[in-house]
Specification:
The structure holds 2 protein chains of 2 kinds. Helix content of chain A is 44%, strand content 11%. Chain A is of the alpha+beta class. Chain A folds into 2 domains: 177 residues, Four Helix Bundle (Hemerythrin (Met), subunit A) (Up-down Bundle), CATH 1.20.120.80; 150 residues, no CATH class. Chain A has a 3-stranded antiparallel β-sheet with strand order 4-3-10, with no helix packed on it. A 3-stranded antiparallel β-sheet of chain A has the order 7-8-9. In chain A, strand 3 and strand 4 form a beta hairpin. Chain A is elongated and about 85 Å long. Chain B is mainly α. Chain B has one domain: Cytochrome C Oxidase, Chain A (Up-down Bundle), CATH 1.20.210.10. Helices cover 65% and strands 1% of the residues of chain B. A two-stranded antiparallel sheet of chain B has the order 1-2. The longest helix of chain B is centred in the N-terminal third of the chain and has 37 residues. Chain B is globular and about 80 Å long. Classes of the chains: A alpha+beta, B mainly alpha. At the A-B interface, helix 1 and helix 7 of A face helix 6, helix 7 and helix 8 of B.
Chain lengths: 397, 557
């Protein structure tokens, strides 16, 4: 850190040259090494800056995942691990070729350098191509960020998000939104319902019930910060869900939210049977929230499976249920992180194309290969960020 | 070694090349710094004009000159312009750019092209920020707090404003990066870390903060930008986002940003203290280390802006305690400056007058900061004029006053002209009086409950507001005169000698104005802050005493 240079010894008022090996050594540096070292320190500071630039998104990720683990566990299933894994491999190969390019430049192997740069560029394009395929799928299915989150839902409410390209059911935006505050505020409503954990054998219409166990109602305790915790897991609490589509009903739809302890929370659908008494009568002062006469009756299953779901769909549904409230947040973070990362990949492509042109012109020599080294360092960081993004977004269980 | 003859043999940096293109595409750090300086002085007048509009509106309770909505825009623009366009780039980007390589004895910064790019990023960012005025103007306060700033009816103005701030942020990051590498790699032989002028320590600490904190602002305003263009929802509570997260991100940058404003000011004041007392600085290492420790502490205290935003009591306590620790390096600096004054040969020239004002006002600003760090008093004082007065004492009374001191101190060096000394002294007293008249009453009304950012107020506060407005106009006139005489002296001032103040750092061994690569011949590294060898020589300013032949060379280490 503390090495200082005797850069005045050669004088600096004279013309370019200084007897430097390469014409690309700028006049205010002592020599090639001074320029290379300065650039190297500069790129390290730049990379530090990049890490801080991404850090806010990682913090947002940690925070929302801590507060809403159910959203992340749920929504992560809609990312395709296969594409994510292929992209990881593609980027690792490109990082290897970038590192190899540095070695070629150091040894003055111009053809090897050009080949390595071409491989890096091709891999980078491949990465963006795969990302394009993934994004297109999500655009088709309406699985987007924030306000644009408009997943495809079927009329029964069970098949909420499809993994197909076409939407056979209804868009969530066309559903009647449930009032979030309505159900839990109804005194006695939770007591009027019973939730059972049910196991089935077989699939589809042929399935048979194997066992049924009633779940106790959760005693929720505040934790000071973060979401309240259930004191007596496994247990259930009532949840009205604005994302549940019930076009044939005017009232809100309710679901059971089951707490298994250890922070594991699951929305109700397959495997959880919620049965409720008729809703309480409207209150005397005409509180509109009290009017839930259209609510589900006792003994009526809330979630009806859609017509002939495939075995895979059933498996997914059994493990997932309706999306938790604000599932869009996962996709907001997913698109923010992968989008910003994608912009960095795109920037990297421009840089490597510029380096390729210079390499073809023969600018790089064992005396002067700094830009290749710096670009490769940048590329390793971009690669490294993806190595973090992949498990954080795709591999949640 | 340094006769005027050799210095004038080589053309100075104004004369080397001429014409618009030679400035627009220059890679010379002095020209870039000078262009920054003109942009900053223009922004200073603009931001000052908004401040005067705010103060005029508050002259009387009720509507005076503008509606409440317009008033909101005035104070937002005042804050945004002053912070992003004046104080943050003031010392580092403008004066630092000019002086850092010269103080190092280096020909230029490490990456001259990056330096020019930073300047154009700054111009584009400033243009975007000012464009928002035409597009309907932002009225969220300079902090852009969500969810208030998510209001889509304001998108037209907020989009260019936050994009401008994003670009300004990257301009600041690249300048910081450039300075860090320059200090690491361009120190000449014989100048170790502890032979660096304290101004360089301060600029180094500032650059560290610029590189480490500003990216977080970058991503935050980028998310706000995406919030408006794509409705991504990360800060939008209606979509499940967290608006308080915005505050955390914002202050994670903006608290260090306060130190980005004040630490270089402290560096400048350290230089002024030693030069104008003709004494070595008292406690060099303590001042150097305290700059770096301020840079590090700056990252740990952002939560003290959010004591009333629903943070957990534990977080509040931790942030409160950490905030108190900031008092230690700050007090070390003030103590050392006062120690330097003790038994010094004090010369009350304009830069020194600003430096002395700085010590007084920084002490007031710093001590009132402790009131706000105490949780119990902060609940009472939060969002009142007490806070307004506190941060103006630090940012304007300290940072901007030090900028003015630095500007006067180095003006002869980089323009080659002297400013009118007597007029400048009068103006510096005008700044001091006007400033204190503006902001001392605000401490009083703040502690009596006058909330900040209010357009209207109870009649009991009228007298304080009127005193404050009168002070603001004294301040405004003084600053306006300063900018005017500087502009005039730029062309018509008396030619400046090489060393008008008797400074010992390397820039005073360069010609005034310097040559293209600053030094016609490699500078000799002398012992830092050693005033024994420098004597006054009439119109030639100060010169180094020729050493008697045969005397052993005076070398340190």
């Amino acid at each position: 850190m503390g090495d200082s240079h005797a850069h005045h010894e050669g004088g600096h008022g004279d013309d370019h040259g200084h007897g430097h090996g390469s014409p690309f050594i700028q006049h205010h540096y002592d020599d090639a090494k001074h320029q290379f070292d300065s650039g190297k320190l500069g790129i390290w500071f730049f990379l530090t800056q990049e890490i801080l630039f991404f850090s806010a998104l990682f913090v947002a990720y940690i925070l929302y995942r801590h507060h809403h683990p159910e959203i992340f566990a749920y929504a992560s299933h809609y990312l395709d691990v296969k594409w994510g894994a292929i992209n990881t491999a593609v980027l690792i190969v490109s990082s290897l070729s970038a590192a190899w390019a540095v070695r070629c430049a150091q040894l003055g192997q111009r053809r090897g350098l050009i080949a390595c740069l071409v491989i890096t560029i091709v891999c980078a394009f491949g990465f963006l191509g795969i990302k394009y395929v993934e994004y297109t799928h999500k655009v088709h299915e309406g699985i987007l960020f924030g306000r644009k989150f408009d997943p495809c839902v079927s009329s029964g409410g069970a098949q909420l998000i499809t993994k197909k390209n076409e939407c056979h059911g209804t868009k969530a935006s066309q559903c009647v939104p449930a009032n979030i505050d309505q159900m839990p505020e109804q005194p006695g409503w939770q007591v009027a319902c019973k939730a059972y954990e049910v196991t089935y054998q077989g699939a589809g219409a042929a399935r048979t019930e194997v066992s049924r166990a009633e779940l106790p109602v959760c005693n929720m305790v505040s934790t000071g910060h973060g979401p309240p915790r259930a004191e007596n897991p496994p247990c259930w609490e009532i949840q009205s869900n604005p994302n549940v589509c019930a076009p044939d009903k005017e009232g809100p739809t309710v679901a059971a939210l089951v707490h298994y302890g250890d922070g594991r929370v699951r929305g109700s659908t397959f495997g959880i049977d919620l049965q409720c008494e008729p809703a309480p009568e409207p209150s005397a002062d005409g509180d509109p929230h009290a009017d839930v006469s259209h609510g589900p009756g006792f003994g009526q299953p809330l979630v009806v499976p859609s017509t002939t779901p495939s075995a895979h769909d059933l498996k997914v549904q059994a493990s997932m249920g309706p999306p938790p409230e604000h599932t869009n947040m996962f996709f907001s973070i997913y698109f923010a992180m992968t989008g910003l990362h994608g912009i960095h990949v795109l920037f990297g492509i421009f840089v490597f194309i510029w380096l390729l042109i210079r390499a073809i012109k023969g600018h790089f020599t064992p005396d002067y290969f700094g830009p290749i080294d710096y670009a490769a360092l940048y590329w390793h960081l971009v690669d490294l960020i993806w190595i973090f993004l992949f498990p954080l977004l795709y591999l949640i269980h | 070694m340094s006769s005027q003859a050799t210095a004038s043999a080589e053309p100075n940096y104004f004369e080397v090349t001429k014409g618009f293109k030679s400035w627009a595409l220059t890679l010379d750090h002095k020209r870039i710094g000078l262009m920054y300086l003109f942009g900053i002085l223009f922004s200073l007048l603009l931001g000052g004009a908004f401040a005067l509009l705010v103060r005029t509106e508050l002259m009387m309770p009720g509507e005076t000159i503008s509606s409440a909505d317009t008033y909101n825009k005035f104070f937002t623009l005042h804050g945004a312009v002053m912070i992003f366009l004046v104080i943050i780039p003031g010392i580092p980007a403008a004066l630092g750019n000019i002086m850092l390589p010269i103080q190092l004895g280096a020909p230029d910064v490490a990456f001259p092209k990056l330096n020019l790019s930073s300047f154009y990023l700054w111009c584009t960012g400033a243009a975007c920020l000012l464009l928002s005025i035409v597009m309907g103007s932002v009225d969220t306060g300079w902090t852009f707090y969500t969810p208030y700033s998510l209001d889509e009816s304001k998108s037209g103005a907020i989009i260019p404003a936050v994009f401008g701030v994003f670009l300004l942020g990257f301009s600041s990051i690249f300048t910081g990066l450039n300075f860090l590498v320059t200090v690491h790699k361009f120190r000449p032989q014989g100048m170790g870390w502890f032979q660096m002028p304290l101004n360089l320590w301060a600029l180094y600490a500032t650059a560290l903060m610029q590189v480490l904190a500003t990216p977080v602002l970058g991503i935050t305003v980028l998310l706000l930008f995406v919030e408006h263009t794509l409705h991504i929802g990360i800060f939008d509570p209606t979509l499940g986002g967290d608006p308080v997260l915005f505050q955390h991100f914002f202050w994670f940058y903006s608290h260090p940003a306060v130190y980005i404003m004040i630490v270089p000011a402290m560096g400048v004041v350290s230089e002024l203290m030693t030069t104008f007392t003709r004494k070595p600085i008292f406690g060099y290492r303590f001042i150097a280390y305290s700059s770096v420790s301020l840079a590090l502490l700056s990252f740990l205290v952002w939560g003290h802006h959010m004591f009333v935003s629903g943070q957990s009591p534990l977080a509040n306590m931790v942030f409160s305690a950490l905030t108190f620790t900031v008092g230690i390096p700050s007090a070390i600096k003030v103590f050392n400056w006062v120690g330097t004054l003790y038994k010094g040969d004090i010369r009350l020239q304009t830069p020194m007058l600003y430096a002395l004002s700085f010590i007084i006002m920084f002490t007031i600003g710093g001590l009132t900061g402790l009131f706000l760090a105490i949780l119990a008093t902060d609940v009472h004082l939060h969002d009142t004029y007490f806070v307004v007065a506190h941060f103006h004492y630090v940012m304007m009374g300290s940072a901007l006053v030090a900028f003015l001191g630095a500007l006067h101190y180095w003006w002869p060096k980089f323009t080659g002209r002297m400013y009118p000394e007597r007029l400048a002294q009068v103006c510096s007293i005008g700044v001091f009086v006007g400033f204190n008249l503006t902001f001392l009453p605000q401490f009083v009304m703040g502690s009596r409950g006058m909330p900040r950012r209010y357009w209207d107020y109870d009649p009991e506060f009228t007298i304080y507001h009127q005193l404050s407005t009168v002070g603001a106009f004294i301040l405004g006139v003084s600053l306006f005169v300063v900018v005017c005489y500087l502009m005039v002296s730029f062309k018509k001032g008396r030619k400046a000698p090489k060393n008008p103040w008797g400074g010992t750092t390397l820039e005073w061994d360069a010609p005034s104005p310097p040559t293209l690569y600053n030094f016609p011949e490699p500078p000799v590294i002398h012992e830092l802050y050693d005033y024994d060898d420098i004597v006054e020589d009439g119109d030639n300013g100060w010169v180094r005493k020729p050493r008697p032949a045969g005397a052993p060379p005076k070398e340190k280490h």
